[in-house]
Every structure is written in structure tokens, then in C-alpha cells.
């Protein structure tokens, strides 16, 4: 009886932290240390700390410590980039895929045109992407929804357990992006302009506030936000 109570309590803690199974799958805990049981607020500065480099610098609002950094020197930084922790260790490699696909439209006659299908793939760690494309499945793939300010996130299953899918949407006018669990349509992260200490005083456009809900992997959320910014 005591063992049963202990297992039930353990499962409840795992569910609150995002580690237990949920309807439609479960979140992928790629970095368990970045899955908080409480909401997390991050400040995203859309600049690199390094001179002449494109990227991001992300801080935890609770203690001011750096959480993530993105530093891009390569000329093709829009095609491939990496998300690092504060020590410079690569967490995720993000690769852009551009494929031309047919698009059918009905008018007086059936016509065929070509459109670009924008998609991104994310892999764990700092690896040669050309090699891991052949040897390793990505953690997730983000595909732009044609004609809509949104995209679909397809998580790849691991150990036979189906993970949750996600959906991202954004508004250029209102300057926000949101990430939802696709099955439950539940928001798991949101980013928008950051306000300063003065009431209703917005900071510069390159300073954003990222709110991550309990159980959501913060590295995955940040990677998805980076992809969203590339899709705009």
C-alpha cells in the first residue's frame, strides 16, 4: 500500500514537471534541467555579445544569469545556427530546409505553380549537420503554414513513445509569438516586447520577454522562437 502511494506521488510530480505521459503524447525532455515545475521568465536580447556577430543573448529574470547565447559569424548564418548554454556548449543545431513544391490553384483552368516550402530541423548537440541528416533523426521539424502567420512543429518519437506536437503563431502588428501544444491547444510559451521599470514603457524592439510554462523545455522553446523570427 505504501509503495502504491509512493508511485502515485512520484507520477504526480512527473506530470507537473512535464515528465509524465499526457493525452496525445508527452513533451520531449531533451534537457531535463531546463524543464522547470514553475513558470519561467526570460529576457531575450536579439543581439550577440560578440562583435560583428549575429545572434541572441538570453537571461533569467529571477537572478539575472545568462541562460542561452547564439553567436553567428558564418556567412550562411540564416541557413544554419546553433543554440548554446552560457558556457558556450552547443545544445541544439538548427538547419533551414528550402524545397520547391507544386501548388495547385483553380481558376478558369487548372494551373500549376511553384512555391517555396519553408521548414527547419533541429538536432541535439554540435554536429556536422550534413552527416547527422543521414545518421540521426531530428528532434523536431517546423514547417511554415502557407498563407498563415503560423507553423506546425512535428516532434519525432523516441523509445516508442509519441511526443506532443506543437503549433506556433505570431502577429507582426502586435509583436508577439506563441507556442501551443497542438493536441490540447494549450499555450506553453509566449514572447513579446519587454516593458521597463516605468509602467507601460516599452524597451527597444530588440529586447523581448519570453514566458515559459511549467514542464516546457526552455531550450526547445527558445529554438522555436528563433525559427519563428526567421519565418517572419
From TrEMBL:
SUPFAM superfamilies per record: Tubby C-terminal domain-like
Domain of life: Eukaryota
InterPro entries per UniProt: LOR (IPR007612), LOR_sf (IPR038595), Tubby-like_C (IPR025659)
Family matches, as Pfam families: LOR (PF04525)
Region (Disordered): 1-30
Family: Belongs to the LOR family.
Protein name as catalogued: (wild Malaysian banana) hypothetical protein
Amino acid at each position: 500500500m505504501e509503495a502504491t502511494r509512493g508511485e502515485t506521488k512520484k507520477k504526480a510530480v512527473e506530470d507537473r514537471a512535464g515528465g509524465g505521459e499526457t493525452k496525445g503524447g508527452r513533451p520531449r525532455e531533451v534537457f531535463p534541467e531546463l524543464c522547470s515545475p514553475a513558470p519561467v521568465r526570460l529576457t531575450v536580447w536579439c543581439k550577440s555579445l560578440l562583435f560583428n556577430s549575429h545572434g541572441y543573448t538570453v537571461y533569467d529574470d529571477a537572478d539575472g544569469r545568462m541562460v542561452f547565447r547564439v553567436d553567428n559569424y558564418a556567412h550562411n548564418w540564416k541557413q544554419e545556427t546553433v543554440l548554446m548554454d552560457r558556457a558556450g556548449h552547443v545544445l541544439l543545431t538548427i538547419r533551414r530546409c528550402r524545397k520547391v513544391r507544386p501548388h495547385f490553384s483553380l481558376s478558369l483552368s487548372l494551373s500549376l505553380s511553384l512555391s517555396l516550402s519553408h521548414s527547419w530541423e533541429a538536432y541535439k548537440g554540435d554536429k556536422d549537420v550534413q552527416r547527422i541528416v543521414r545518421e540521426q533523426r531530428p528532434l523536431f521539424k517546423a514547417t511554415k503554414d502557407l498563407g498563415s502567420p503560423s507553423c506546425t512543429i512535428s516532434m519525432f518519437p523516441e523509445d516508442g513513445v509519441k511526443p506532443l506536437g506543437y503549433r506556433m503563431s505570431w502577429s507582426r502588428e502586435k509583436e508577439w509569438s506563441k507556442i501551443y501544444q497542438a493536441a490540447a491547444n494549450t499555450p506553453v510559451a509566449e514572447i513579446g516586447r519587454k516593458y521597463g521599470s516605468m509602467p507601460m514603457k516599452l524597451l527597444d524592439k530588440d529586447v523581448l520577454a519570453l514566458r515559459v510554462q511549467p514542464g516546457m523545455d526552455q531550450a526547445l522553446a527558445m529554438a522555436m522562437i528563433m525559427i519563428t523570427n526567421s519565418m517572419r
